[in-house]
Known about the structure:
Layout: H1 44-72, H2 80-92, H3 105-133
Helix pairs in contact: 1-2, 1-3
Amino acid sequence: MSDTRPPLPEPPGYGYGHAPAPGPQYAEPSVPPAAPAQRRRDGSGTRRAALVIHTIADVAAAFLGLWILLYLLQANHANVFVGFVRDVADSLAWWSQDIFTMDTENLRVLLDYGLPAVLYLAVGHGVAMRLRRF
């Protein structure tokens, strides 16, 4: 079978001395390009911050509680671990030292270190709870 149609005219720009023809035309992609990266709005950052605050409050209260326990059990104050726990507890409870002046030393230590432990737990857990609600 032969083609009986007349030849098509030459498109402009294909002759010698003419401007070159435009480059090939591609079809539009069937999948649109990806949107630019955006910040996630699912609250994962605030949940992570709440977890960090919650954990810090728990660790602070644990050190204070451990010092109260070691003091009440009359642990060896020359021991390195006991000294470390005492130093950490002193740095956490510096603001509450000598609030209570009791005749009994054990009760004084319990109140002087127990009050900051309870406050750290209450404030830390309260702030973490408020962050989780957002």
